[in-house]
């Protein structure tokens, strides 16, 4: 019996605190809301990363815009340099230039008519994409529920294991201190 009663009580208290922290961490880890939040953050960060790789950051844009007047004459050369071997960048630049020109010049009546016809023809595609998205979401509900149930079961098993360990340790402490059960 190498430990005093006070030392054993401190050990038990420390173990309880550790178990409480562990249970809190498990609860946070298996919480469906936190799982969804982590996945949403992961998707948001990956989309942001892709957007920054393609479009550049706001800092890059502010640097570019402050020197735009000075560099107007260098645009063709700069475009060739930056887009050489990068078709996505060339497409993005062409789109940006087209967008700026479209914003500067008002749309003509024929362009407005063409836009309306295009929107009418794109509506079935939009509806199909919406339906497909809903179907995908519906198909993902069941695997998400199963995953949540598995996490819940795992958390219950872990909690039971922690409880059993704590009970066993408490019983060992009682036995070692000679207290009646």
Global mean pLDDT:
76
| Total separate domains | 2
Please give the radius of gyration in angstroms. Answer: 31 Å
Helix content: over 70%
Task: Tag the structure with descriptive keywords.
88% helix, elongated, mainly alpha, single chain, 2 domains, 181 residues
What do these coordinates show?
By secondary structure, the protein is an all-alpha fold. It has 2 domains: 5-71 and 112-177, no CATH class; 72-105. The protein has 7 helices and no strands. It has helices spanning 5-30, 32-55, 58-66, 68-71, 75-83, 87-104, 109-177. Helix 1 packs antiparallel against helix 7 (109-177). The protein starts with a helix and ends with a helix.
Structure at a glance:
Helices cover 88% and strands 0% of the residues.
Topology overview:
Blueprint: H1 5-30, H2 32-55, H3 58-66, H4 68-71, H5 75-83, H6 87-104, H7 109-177
Helix pairs in contact: 1-7
